[in-house]
Design brief:
Number of helices: 3
Largest sheet: 8 strands, antiparallel, barrel
CATH topology: Porin
Distance between the termini: 120 Å
Structural class: alpha+beta
Strand order of the largest sheet: 1-2-3-6-7-9-10-11
Number of strands: 11
Helix content: 10-25%
Number of domains: 1
């Protein structure tokens, strides 16, 4: 009887412990279930193709290599051109006796229009002033027409003449050129070339003689004589132009396509110039 009572007590204790474990397990499950927030539906982030390219290392590397090569908005556009050159005449006759180094000076303000289809090419348009000094030896030019109806180059070596004598002309010009630059991103160090035309109108023309001397070279007077007239000259000038160089320095050449002196009033000379161009801005 005592053994049966002990067995019943042991079974009862085992059942009570099992019931407590079941209660604790169920409570834990409820706690875990309640800790999960099921009130809001879950959404997935949508990544666009652009965001995917931005976040990928290969695309970023590609953009660094390609996109900067197309950014040429900050490149130097050669808005200012300064030209200094040696000037001479083609087709001159024996009566045209030049002396020394005749020279020219020009300054142009240009605006550059890059071509969208090709970053190496652009169109340049502008306006500027050009002047020249042509020196003669023992010669007189009657630009005012005092002694004739044509522009004569009178030889004065056997009589009184000026030691220094020159023809001065000044033009207002509008250059148009197509430009090429080998490296658009670094134009200050790149090879450059340009070709085009200049259309100009004559502002003034005249001669200047200084230091009158005898036929044997002795000084007669420190006299200075100036004469101004455009009557014998074509007041419109059309010139072909070209230049080639590296960075801000280049060589240029100009050639006047139309006659410098009016037809029938003198020799059909065509001025040309070779010199150096300094460009910038």
């Amino acid at each position: 009887m005592k053994k049966i009572s002990a067995l019943l007590i042991a079974v009862s204790s085992f059942m009570m412990v099992k019931a407590q474990d079941s209660t604790i397990g169920a409570g834990a499950k409820d706690t875990i279930h309640n800790s999960v927030d099921t009130s809001a539906p879950k959404t997935l982030q949508i990544i666009t193709p652009d965001q995917s390219l931005e976040n990928s290392a290969p695309a970023s590397s590609l953009s660094k290599k390609i996109l900067p090569s197309l950014n040429i908005g900050n490149r130097a556009s050669d808005h200012l051109l300064i030209q200094i050159g040696y000037e001479n005449w083609a087709n001159k006759t024996d009566s045209v006796r030049m002396k020394g180094i005749s020279r020219s000076f020009s300054m142009y303000f240009m605006y550059n229009f890059p071509l969208k289809s090709n970053p190496h090419l652009s169109i340049g348009l502008g306006v500027g002033i050009s002047s020249s000094n042509i020196y003669f030896s023992n010669t007189n030019l009657d630009v005012a027409g005092k002694s004739g109806t044509t522009l004569n180059f009178t030889d004065l070596k056997d009589t009184t003449h000026f030691k220094k004598y020159k023809l001065l002309t000044t033009y207002l010009e509008a250059p148009v050129e197509i430009r090429y630059v080998k490296d658009p991103l670094h134009p200050k160090k790149s090879f450059k070339a340009a070709a085009g035309v200049k259309v100009g109108t004559m502002l003034s023309a005249g001669t200047k003689g200084k230091n009158l001397q005898s036929s044997n070279g002795q000084l007669v007077s420190n006299f200075i004589e100036k004469e101004k007239s455009k009557r014998y000259f074509n007041t419109t000038r059309i010139s072909a132009t070209g230049r080639v160089g590296i960075g801000a320095v280049s060589l240029f050449a100009n050639y006047q396509l139309n006659a410098f002196i009016k037809s029938g009033f003198g020799p059909d000379v065509r001025p040309y110039t070779i010199g150096i161009t300094i460009s910038g801005l």
